[in-house]
Each structure stands twice: as structure tokens, then as C-alpha cells.
Amino acid sequence: EMQLLESGGGLVQSGGSLRLSCAASGFTFSSYAMSWVRQAPGKGLEWVSGISFSGGDTYYADSVKGRFTISRDNSKNTLYLQMNSLRGEDTAVYYCAKDWHLAVWGQGTLVTVSS
Amino acid sequence: DVVMTQSPLSLPVTLGQPASISCRSSQSLVYSDGNTYLNWFQQRPGQSPRRLIYKVSNRDSGVPDRFSGSGSGTDFTLKISRVEAEDVGVFYCMQGTHWPLTFGGGTKVEIK
């Protein structure tokens, strides 16, 4: 069974940093692009970032460009999202998802940015 | 960015009756490879989203056949032939043709 398990969320002050991880299992992680999607409390879904299967190509939403960095370690079947210069509007549940078309989702990890 | 517009915002439905959700994009979603990357997701209360439909009309594994997707170009529809209690939640369309990927605002399906 394909599974994604996010971790690393928590409470951080405005301007701070956090690194999220997503551990994948049940599929050949190194063969698939991966994505991060977030959902602010009571709001809809927002695509945040994506990375190609090799890690050679990365994409970002304008709202996080220059502050967030997506990466992956195919030897560890793990996806990462380094988040710097965090703002209140970054408060959300962050989901990792399999491939560009979000075929499988994790359970999410909550990031709360306090002022 | 491609704007995805869903309607209605809220959809009260009687159990066993059909339901239909519209999704319109501000640009054509036909990609250079000929595919149209329009997906539908369901988010039940308190759960993560799950994909129901990919490339307009292809059901994901395990998705009941009462769900169907149709459309082309900029105009798409998700239909539920007979709504069941487990279908309550928010449905989102998403385009995967143009960067950045963008979602519709969501349609909340509830039982009357």
C-alpha cells in the first residue's frame, strides 16, 4: 500500500524556520515527482511546490518563492520542505503528495506561525 | 496563473439523488502532449484530500463508479449519479497543465 507520512510541523515564531519531511513507502519513490500542498485553517487547497523524480527540476508558488526550498533524498525515500522567513499566512496543514497530479496524499502536518 | 472557478459553492443534496459540480478554467487545459490534466479531489470532514478523477474522466482505483468526470478545453463537470452519506465533504478541481498548479475554491456537498 502506498503511504506518505509527514513530520516536522509545529509552532514557530514569525521570521523563523522549519523543515518538513515526508517519508514514502509502498512505491518506487525515486521514479516519481513529488509535491507539497497546504491548507490554511478553514480554507481551500493551495499548491506550494513540486520536484521532479531526480530532484533536478523544482517549482514553487509565487507566495513561497525565495523562502521555501523543496528537496528529496531518494536513498531515504524522503521528501523535504525547508521553510525560512515564515509568516503568519504560512500557517496551514502541509501535505505531501505523489507526483504532479497528486495521486496519493499524506495525513498532513500542522505548521503554526505566531507573531 | 490559471484561475479555476467552481460552482456551486455549496450543494445540498437528497440521498440517492444526483449531484453535479462545475469547474471552469481561465485557459485551455489541453497540454502539448494532447492530454488534459484536470483532476478532481474529495476531502471528507477531518480527512486528507484524496484524488477521485484524473485527466478529466479517469477514476482512481477504489473510487465508486457513481462518480464520473467529463468536459474539455475549459469546461469540466464532476457528477455523482446517486449521492450516498459517505460523499459528504468538499470537492476540488485542480489543473495540472500550467505552472503553477491551481485549485478551484471547492464545493461543499451536504445532505439535505
* Element-level helix/strand string of chain B: EEEEEEEEEEE
If you compute it from the alpha carbons, what radius of gyration of chain B comes out, rounded to the nearest whole angstrom?
13 Å
Specify the overall morphology of chain A.
globular
Give the biggest beta sheet of chain A.
6 strands, mixed
Note the total helix count of chain B.
Answer: 0
The beta-strand count of chain A equals: 10
Oligomer: heterodimer
The portion of residues assigned to helices of chain A is under 10%
What value does the average pLDDT of chain B take?
A: 97
Low-confidence runs of chain B: none
Radius of gyration computed on alpha carbons of chain A: 13 Å
The number of helical runs of chain A is 0
Instruction: Give the uncertain stretches of chain A in residue-range form.
Output: none
Shape of chain B: globular
Quick rundown:
The complex is a heterodimer of chains A (115) and B (112). Chain A has 115 residues and is mainly β.
Q: Can you offer a commentary on this structure?
A:
The complex is a heterodimer of chains A (115) and B (112). Chain A is mostly beta strands and 115 residues long. In chain A, 0% of the residues lie in helices and 50% in strands. Chain A contains no helices and 10 strands. Chain A starts with a strand and ends with a strand. The mean pLDDT of chain A is 97.
